[in-house]
Amino acid sequence: MSIEVSCRPVGDGYDCAVTVSEGRSSTRHRVRVASADLSQWARGRSVDDFVRDSFVFLLEREPKESILREFDLSVIKRYFPDYDGAAP
Predict the structure, then answer these.
(1) How many structural domains comprise the chain?
(2) pLDDT tens readout for residues 30-40
(3) 72 lies in which domain range?
């Protein structure tokens, strides 16, 4: 499985395009990351690495097709209370 992440600064945070591919199947996602969430959870990682690690966390718990197509990264904690920025 591969996870491609491309983030760009937008307003007070980042807008990230994420593609999760497995074999011939892939899903695309749009993820918004607030600067405050990056400060709280990234622990020195780049925004791209932080989002990639968060998708690894999600994919350990659900199939790629179940991940929301568009969301704010902070909502992960609502669905998975053990999420803490997918710390390495």
Answers:
(1) 1
(2) 999 999 999 98
(3) 2-79
